[in-house]
Design goal:
single chain; 626 residues; mainly beta; 8-stranded antiparallel β-sheet; 7-stranded antiparallel β-sheet; 51 strands; 0% helix
C-alpha cells in the first residue's frame, strides 16, 4: 500500500525574558512597552513595578525643597527644617520668605534662598539676610579722615613751618598753600621728643560714624555708599561708591579714602536737612546742601539660577547677560574686588537670549542658554576663563531639570533629554516622544542611586508626567505624576505631588510604617507583536509568567491589529509570594498588543509565543496601527 506524503506541521516557541523600557517611537519592539506607568528596572531583565512610596506628611504650597544635613521645605511664606538627627528638634520660621518658587543652593552649613536673598543656617536654625541696607533716616552721619587704626585728630596750629619749640606729641598741620590750608596736599605731623623730629601721620581712611551703623556690617564687607555730600563739601569725591570695610564698631566704619579735595582736613556732619563741614582746628565752618539721604548697602545681585562650585556660589539672571560669583566662602559679598584670590567675580557674555540654567560638573561651572553653553574654569578670579559653544542647551522653563549623576550632567533641552560628560551634550531620550517634552512650563529633577528622575509639565497639562532614566541600563520608565518638587539626600529621594511629601525608597527611612505605603496602580502596553513572525506562521498561544508579592490584581487585555483592547482575564494575588501563569489563545492577527493593568507588586518574568504553521494569507485584511 502506498501512503500519500503529507506536510508536517511544526510548532516553534519564541521566549522573551529580557524586557526593555519605555519606547514611544515607531520602532518599539516586542520586548519593550509603548505606553505604561509605574514600572522600573529594579529586577532587570524582568519587568517589575516600582517600589511603593511612603507618605511622610501632608504638605501644601511647596515652593522649594533642599537637603543639607536635613530636609528644608519652603511652603508659602514659611520655612520648615527637619534635621537628619532624629533627636534634634524641627525648626519652623513663619513669614520668613515671599510666596513664589525658589532657587536653593547649599554652601557650608547654610542653604541660600533666592530670589529672597536669605540664608538658613542648618547649624543654629537662624534665617539671615545676605544683603544689608542702612539708611540715615533722620540720624546724623559724620565723615572724618582717620589713620589706619581708625583714630581721628584735631590740631591747634597750621602753617608752612613747624613750631620752634614743640611739645612731645604735639600735632601740627604743615600746609603747602597758606590760602588753602585744609587741602589734601597738606600734611599732618606729630612731634616726638625722643627722636627730636616731626613724623607724618598719613590719613588714608575715613571714619564714618552714625548710631547703629556697624550692626549690619562686618569687617571686609564691601558696601555701597550713596548720598554722602563729601564731594560737594570738597572733602573727597571717592566716598560715594563701593567701599571695603576695613574695621568697624557698633556705631562706626572705617573705609579707604585717598586724600583729595580742597577741604580734606576736616569733619563733615550730614543730616537730612544739610551738611556742615568743620576744619580740623574747629575754627572754620562751611554749609553744604544735602540732596540725598545717606545710605550704605551690602548688595546682592538678582539671581534666578544658582549653584555652588569650589566654595563659591555662582549665579545668573534671565534679565541680564552677566555671570556672578560671590567672594570665596562668603555668599554675602558679591562686589568685593580687593585684588586677592578671594575676590568676587563678574563677567558679561555676548551670546543672545536669556540664561536658562546654571550647574557645576567636573570642576566646571556651566551657564546655559537654549542654544549655547558657557563653560567657566579656573581656580581664582585672575585665572578664570570662559569658553562658549553653540549646542543644545537647557530649554526655557527647564532650569530645574538639571541633575549630576555619576560625573554626568543630565538636563532637558528643546530636543529632549541631554547628557553632558565634559565634551558635547548627547541625546539620551531617543526612545521618548519628543512632542511630549516640548513647550514645558514647569520642571523638577532629582536622583537616586543611578536613576535620573524628571518631572515635566507642558502648558495646558495640569498633571504632567514623571520620567525615570536608568543611567546604567539606558532605559526609560514612566511613574505616577508625582515630583513637582524633588530633593535628593544621596540615599533617599523626596517627592512632592502637590498635596503630600513622599519618600521614594521607604526601606531607607529610619522607621517603617506599612500603613503609610501607597498602592501601586500600574499599566503596561507592549509593542506590536507579530512583526518578527515569518510568513505562513501565526501565534497560536501566548503565555505570560508573572510573580506577585502580597495582595494584588492584574487584568490582561489584548488589541488585534490596532483595534480596541479586549479583556481576556483577571487574576488576583492573595498574599505572600505567588507565581501567576497567564495563558491564552489569540485569534489570527497581523499584529497584536498586550496590556496589563492592575495594582500591587508584580513582576513580568517571561512572555512565550507559540508559533504554528499556517496555509498563508496571514495578513489578509490587516490594517497598521495608527
Amino acid at each position: 500500500m502506498v501512503l500519500a506524503d503529507r506536510m508536517r506541521l511544526a510548532n516553534t516557541r519564541q521566549l522573551l525574558r529580557a524586557f526593555g523600557g519605555l519606547n514611544e517611537t515607531y520602532g518599539c519592539s516586542e520586548a519593550e512597552y509603548s505606553a505604561g506607568v509605574n514600572f522600573s528596572t529594579r529586577d532587570f531583565p524582568a519587568l517589575s513595578t516600582r517600589t511603593p512610596r511612603r507618605k511622610l506628611r501632608a504638605l501644601t504650597g511647596l515652593n522649594g525643597m533642599y537637603h543639607l544635613n536635613g530636609l528644608l521645605t519652603v511652603c508659602g511664606r514659611d520655612i520648615v527644617y527637619i534635621p537628619d538627627d532624629a533627636a534634634a528638634p524641627a525648626v519652623t520660621k513663619p513669614d520668613a520668605v515671599t510666596d513664589g518658587r525658589k532657587a536653593l543652593v547649599g554652601i557650608g552649613t547654610k542653604i541660600l534662598i533666592f530670589p529672597d536673598k536669605l540664608a538658613f543656617d542648618t547649624a543654629d536654625g537662624r534665617v539671615t539676610a545676605l544683603g544689608a541696607l542702612w539708611t540715615a533716616a533722620g540720624k546724623s552721619v559724620t565723615f572724618a579722615p582717620c589713620d589706619a587704626a581708625g583714630k581721628t585728630y584735631q590740631v591747634e596750629a597750621f602753617g608752612r613751618d613747624e613750631p620752634a619749640e614743640p611739645a612731645d606729641g604735639q600735632l601740627f598741620l604743615k600746609v603747602e598753600d597758606a590760602d588753602h590750608p585744609w587741602r589734601y596736599d597738606s600734611t599732618l605731623e606729630m612731634y616726638s621728643k625722643n627722636s627730636g623730629s616731626w613724623a607724618a601721620i598719613p590719613l588714608e581712611y575715613c571714619r564714618i560714624t552714625a548710631a547703629g551703623l556697624g550692626e549690619l556690617f562686618r569687617q571686609w564687607d564691601t558696601v555701597t555708599v550713596q548720598g554722602a555730600a563729601a564731594e560737594a563739601a570738597g572733602q573727597s569725591p571717592e566716598l560715594n561708591g563701593d567701599q571695603i570695610v576695613y574695621d568697624m564698631g557698633e556705631d562706626w566704619l572705617r573705609v579707604r579714602c585717598t586724600p583729595q579735595g580742597e577741604y580734606f582736613y576736616g569733619t563733615l556732619v550730614q543730616n537730612a536737612a544739610a551738611a556742615q563741614w568743620q576744619s580740623m582746628d574747629g575754627k572754620q565752618h562751611r554749609s553744604v546742601d544735602a540732596a540725598q539721604t545717606v545710605s550704605m548697602e551690602r548688595r546682592v545681585p538678582e539671581l534666578d539660577f544658582v549653584t555652588e562650585c569650589d566654595n563659591r556660589v555662582w549665579g545668573c539672571s534671565k534679565k541680564e547677560n552677566v555671570i556672578y560669583s560671590c567672594a570665596l566662602g562668603d555668599p554675602t559679598n558679591w562686589y568685593s574686588y580687593q585684588g586677592t584670590a578671594a575676590d568676587s567675580y563678574a563677567v558679561t557674555v555676548g551670546s543672545d537670549g536669556p540664561f536658562t540654567a546654571v550647574a557645576s560638573c567636573l570642576g566646571y561651572v556651566l551657564f546655559f542658554k537654549e542654544n549655547c553653553i558657557h563653560r567657566l574654569y579656573g581656580t581664582k578670579p585672575s585665572e578664570y576663563r570662559l569658553s562658549s559653544v553653540r549646542c543644545r542647551g537647557v530649554a526655557a522653563n527647564a532650569g530645574h531639570s538639571l541633575c549630576v549623576i555619576a560625573e554626568t550632567l543630565y538636563y532637558l533641552s528643546t530636543d529632549g533629554v541631554m547628557a553632558w560628560d565634559g565634551s558635547l551634550p548627547t541625546k539620551v531620550s531617543a526612545a521618548l516622544d519628543p512632542g511630549r517634552m516640548q513647550g514645558v512650563d514647569w520642571t523638577a529633577a532629582g536622583y537616586l542611586d543611578a536613576r535620573y528622575y524628571l518631572y515635566l509639565r507642558q502648558k495646558g497639562d495640569p498633571a504632567g508626567r514623571l520620567l525615570v532614566y536608568d543611567t546604567e541600563k539606558g532605559m526609560w520608565h514612566a511613574e505616577g505624576a508625582a515630583g513637582r518638587e524633588m530633593a535628593s539626600s544621596g540615599r533617599q529621594l523626596y517627592l512632592w505631588d502637590g498635596s503630600s511629601l513622599w519618600a521614594t525608597e521607604p526601606d531607607r527611612e529610619a522607621d517603617s510604617d506599612p500603613e503609610a505605603l501607597d498602592v501601586v496602580q500600574f499599566e503596561v502596553v507592549s509593542g506590536d507583536i507579530g512583526m518578527s513572525v515569518p510568513d505562513d506562521k501565526y501565534v497560536s498561544r501566548v503565555t505570560l509568567r508573572m510573580d506577585a508579592e502580597g495582595t494584588g490584581l492584574v487584568t490582561l487585555a489584548v488589541s488585534y491589529d490596532g483595534k480596541p483592547f479586549e479583556k481576556v482575564a483577571t487574576y488576583a494575588a492573595k498574599g505572600g509570594h505567588e507565581r501567576l501563569n497567564l495563558p491564552f489563545e489569540p485569534r489570527r492577527f497581523d499584529t497584536m498588543r498586550i496590556r496589563l493593568t492592575g495594582k500591587g507588586q508584580m513582576t513580568l518574568r517571561s512572555l512565550a509565543l507559540t508559533l504554528a504553521d499556517s496555509s498563508g494569507a496571514r495578513v489578509q485584511g490587516a490594517k497598521p496601527r495608527k
